[in-house]
Amino acid sequence: MPVPKYRTSASKRNMRRSHHALKNVGVSACPNCGEMKLPHVACPSCGHYKGRQVIELSKFTPEADSNSESTTTDKA
Ligand SMILES: [Zn+2]
User: Fold this and answer.
1) What is the mean pLDDT of the chain?
2) Band of residue 56 on the pLDDT scale cut at 50, 70, 90
3) What is the CA(36)–ligand 1 centre distance, in A?
4) Spatial distance between the Cα atoms of 74 and 70, rounded to a whole number of angstroms
5) What separation in Å is there between the alpha carbon of 23 and the centre of ligand 1?
């Protein structure tokens, strides 16, 4: 198995990591319910996408609903 010949200097390591910063997610308000949602993704709170209902949220169990609530609190 090949092994690096030289230790990576702090300068080279930091130059490599200069691209590792996370960028903001482009969230936008849902036109149906106003909840913040990701672009090109059905709204997790009301199930609408492009002006129509695409997900029946009543089919999900209360456990799944609690999971979706926790994710919404993480975003906020
Ligand atoms: Zn919505």
Assistant:
1) 83
2) confident
3) 8
4) 6
5) 24
- Taking a 5 Å cut-off on Cβ, the residues next to ion ligand 1 are 30, 32-33, 35, 43, 46
DSSP string, 9-67: PHHHHHHHHTT-PPPPP--EE-TTT--EE-TTS--TTT-EETTEE-S-GGGS-HHHHHH
Q: Looking up tokens 């695409």, which residue turns up?
A: 54
Instruction: Kindly report the number of other CB atoms within 10 A of residue 35's CB atom.
Output: 16
- The domain ranges of the chain are 26-75
21 CA distance to ligand 1 centroid (A)?
30
CA of 22 to the centre of ligand 1 (A): 26
